[in-house]
Amino acid sequence: RAGAGDMFRGMTFFAKWVGGSESPNFLAWNRNKRSIALNLKSRKVHAIIMEMAKSADVVVQNFRPGVLAKLGYGYEDFKAVNPRVIYCSGSGYGEEG
């Protein structure tokens, strides 16, 4: 989430037992991941994301079906800059919902 980050980062109830200030769950689930918040409607951001996609192995998204394709971030868009990219869509309502 832009400005706030992952909500699990702040769930520090158990952090006092492991001597940290961040949630152990957040640290375990996000190990070796990098986070970034961008305005997907910006053309400048589109160029940045497509540049990042050139070296990506996987693109994971959870938007409603068709939303990212309308913004220029569909599978075909990523495939054009990186033919080996794996595009993972995790919509809670499936491809038709």
Structure keywords:
single chain; 97 residues; alpha+beta; 2 domains; two-stranded parallel sheet; 5 helices; 2 strands; 33% helix
- Could you say how many structural domains there are in total? 2
CA distance, first residue to last residue: 23 Å
Widest β-sheet, arrangement of strands: 1-2
Low-confidence stretches: none
| Gross geometry | elongated
Helix content: 25-40%
Structure summary:
With 97 residues, this protein is α+β, with helices and mostly antiparallel strands.
What does this structure look like?
By secondary structure, this protein is an alpha+beta fold. It folds into two domains: 1-36, no CATH class; 38-97, no CATH class. The protein is built from five helices and two strands. The chain has helices spanning 15-18, 24-29, 43-53, 67-70, 75-81; strands spanning 58-61, 86-89. The protein has a two-stranded parallel ribbon.
